[in-house]
Design a protein that fits this description.
Layout lengths: L14 H7 L6 E7 L2 E7 L23 H19 L1
Antiparallel strand pairs: 1-2
């Protein structure tokens, strides 16, 4: 559906497209001139939600804070580095 460009150069993104992409107020629109047309990329703003506990279902072992955590982190890095090198 065609839309008229506003007096300030603004255009409307149809509700159907916004709904399909999940675009909401506050999203960032990046424009790029490609030949004879404009491409628009839409990005959601950074979220302020806490991610605490989001990986809980994926954890197999509990590790206490402090020295135990430091040792577990070092062991994980060593294992990852070993896999990369082989």
């Amino acid at each position: 559906m065609p839309y008229v460009v506003g007096s300030k150069g603004q255009i409307v993104i149809s509700k159907e497209i916004r709904d399909s992409l999940g675009v909401e107020s506050g999203w960032i629109a990046i424009q790029r001139l490609v030949g004879d047309h404009v491409e628009v990329y839409l990005f959601p703003p950074e979220h302020g939600d806490s991610l605490k506990g989001s990986l809980k279902t994926h954890l197999k072992d509990k590790v206490a804070a402090g020295k135990e955590w430091d040792a577990a982190r070092e062991a994980a890095w060593a294992k990852a580095a070993s896999k990369k090198m082989t």
